[in-house]
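Summary of Year 1 activities. Much of the first year was spent building the evaluation harness for sequence design. The harness presents a backbone, in tokenized form, and records the residue chosen at every position. We chose the following record to illustrate the format because it has been used consistently in internal testing since the harness was completed.
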């Protein structure tokens, strides 16, 4: 059966997010930026905030390990919005077109509860979603099967009813194993053809 609803990831599907967008301003030398993002503030460290830990607690723990980089570590939260570089036009257009056709659309994002509102304000496409599940509020994150099951329970749909769109291969594989139709988002230009092929547009 073809899917009849969309389940959208947020970062790098609807809006572009990359810590490097901020930290290239702070560390003009590429090697210094690489070193900071791989050893001082790697993504595995940030994941705790996506699972409900506050930025204050997570940052304090990191500063204790790297006190020489206190200002740069604090920038992770204080200058959070500078990690974004705008919305993805192809996704915004698809969400609008799906909305016009009455296709149900939802969100599933690994995101801190503290940055959720500011992220949702970055594109009018978010207002077209009929609901969302945010990991920071639920204290469970992709690719844990529990968060996908939560989406089904909350939105009253079966896994096969969804087309799940995410930029992470790990998250896609987890959803596929549970019966979701999936689209690994790597090329914005491939989005609309994939939706058309499923009869959604």
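For this record, the design step produced the sequence shown next.
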């Amino acid at each position: 059966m073809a899917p009849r609803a969309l389940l959208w990831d947020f970062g790098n599907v609807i809006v572009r997010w990359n810590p490097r967008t901020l930290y290239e301003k702070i560390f003009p030398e590429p090697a210094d930026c690489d070193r900071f993002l791989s050893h001082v503030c790697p993504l595995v460290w940030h994941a705790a905030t996506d699972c409900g830990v506050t930025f204050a607690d997570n940052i304090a723990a990191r500063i204790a390990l790297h006190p020489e980089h206190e200002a740069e570590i604090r920038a992770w939260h204080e200058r959070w919005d500078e990690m974004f570089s705008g919305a993805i036009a192809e996704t915004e257009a698809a969400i609008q077109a799906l909305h016009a056709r009455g296709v149900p659309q939802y969100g599933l994002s690994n995101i801190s509860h503290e940055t959720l509102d500011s992220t949702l304000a970055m594109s009018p496409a978010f207002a077209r979603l009929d609901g969302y599940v945010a990991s920071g509020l639920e204290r469970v994150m992709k690719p844990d099967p529990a968060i996908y099951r939560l989406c089904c329970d909350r939105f009253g749909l079966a896994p096969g009813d969804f087309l799940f769109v995410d930029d992470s291969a790990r998250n896609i594989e987890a959803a596929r194993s549970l019966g979701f139709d999936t689209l690994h988002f790597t090329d914005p230009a491939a989005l609309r053809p994939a939706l058309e092929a499923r009869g959604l547009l």
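The chain has eleven helices and seven strands. Quantitative recovery figures across the full test set are reported in Table 2.
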